[in-house]
Amino acid sequence: MTVTAPAAVRATRPATEPYLPFALRVTNSVRLSTTFVRVTLAGESLVDFDYHGLDQRMSLLFLPPGTDCEAFAREPDWMAAWRSGPPSSWAPLRVYTVRAFRPEAREIDVDFALHGVGSPASRWASTAKAGDGIVMISAAPGHPITDVAWRPPADASRLLLAADETALPAAASILEALHRPARAFIEVPFPDDRLTIAGPAEITWLVRSEGERLEPVVREQLDRSAPAGTPGDVVEQEDGDVWDVPEEAAGGFYAWLAGEAGTVVSLRRHLVAERGVDRRAVAFMGYWKKGRAQPN
Ligand SMILES: Cc1cc2nc3c(=O)[nH]c(=O)nc-3n(C[C@H](O)[C@H](O)[C@H](O)COP(=O)(O)OP(=O)(O)OC[C@H]3O[C@@H](n4cnc5c(N)ncnc54)[C@H](O)[C@@H]3O)c2cc1C
User: Fold this and answer.
1) Does the predicted TM-score (pTM) go above 0.70?
2) How far is ligand 1, taken at its centre, from the CA of residue 196, in Å?
3) Is 45 in the pocket of ligand 1 (CB under 6 A)?
4) Which residues contact 282 (CB under 8 A, 6 or more apart)?
5) Taking a C-beta distance cutoff of 8 angstroms, is the pair 190, 207 a contact?
6) Helix, strand, or coil (residue 12)
7) Alpha helices (runs of H) in the chain, residue ranges in sequence order
């Protein structure tokens, strides 16, 4: 994307600052299914949004209701403004995928998987209405691309994606951008959550309410199709990040695993430690941890 004249938000910041706040407003909210709501967010500040597509992630800052998001985004140091009090008072920051970006309209879509009203992002999304303000935090234009995890080798001929509902928006964006075959397994809570995904990928949907689960089905598929090599070591930290995105994947097979941390850890262990797939061929991302809020 070409970046045009600097917006006000950029003019006050050093060019080296890695993340920018974008003050946005809800322009539309559409219930896609039992679990998903698509919220459209718009703002002139998106003139500075560096869009790379695929599974590009950003963060949403859930400031207290009534906060002037435009004024917040003009703060010379948004991080200091956000963290001005004790940690318990910081507004929740949550990571989401940019499901679509329409530069001419200066708007993005975010597909939220709702999981009740007891947690900040899910609560906000379930009641979002036109006019509500929010702040998005995203990399400044021109910074190295670190917010896209899908990095298969150019010559990979076997592509596998495994995702739950939180990673469905990312998987869908990747699959729709692919012009080569891929195999995808997506677990969703309910039958109507099997959203339409364009493109040539072969998608297997697993519906939790019907007793279907991602892990056993993907394991079985891997046993049939993943390359076998020398089992490697997998070091897992009990409380550490469940995140490893190889910078330089190599070889004909590439797996992208995203969703609930326990599931992706187990699938990655199966691939690397049991089937001997090169760890550089596996991107794995724990999007959320059961029983644990996303850390700020
Ligand atoms: C790179 C990346 C991209 C992501 N993209 C998306 C996206 O496009 N759409 C999307 O919906 N999510 C996405 N997520 C996941 C989302 O950030 C988490 O689900 C987040 O925890 C939601 O915040 P919350 O405030 O609703 O819940 P939290 O306050 O973080 O968690 C509160 C409780 O809810 C549980 N919880 C969190 N998420 C779920 C869930 N989905 N189902 C059941 N229980 C849950 C937690 O375990 C915790 O017990 C993404 C995460 C990452 C890292």
Assistant:
1) yes
2) 22
3) no
4) 244, 246, 254, 255, 257, 268, 271, 272
5) yes
6) coil
7) 8-11, 69-74, 78-82, 120-127, 168-177, 214-225, 261-269
pLDDT tens across 85-141, in order?
A: 999 999 999 999 999 999 999 999 999 999 999 999 999 999 999 999 999 999 988
Domain topology for 158-288:
Rossmann fold (3.40.50)
| Crossing angle of helices 214-225 and 261-269, rounded to 10° | 20
User: Residue 84 C-alpha to ligand 1 middle, in angstroms?
Assistant: 25
Q: Tell me, using a 6 A CB cutoff, whether residue 120 lines ligand 1.
A: yes
The topology under which CATH files domain 8-139 is Elongation Factor Tu (Ef-tu); domain 3 (2.40.30)
Indicate if ligand 1 lies below 6 Å from the C-beta of 35.
Answer: no
Ligand 1 site, residue 115, Cβ cutoff 6 A:
yes
Q: Do 31 and 150 meet the contact criterion of CB atoms below 8 Å apart? A: no
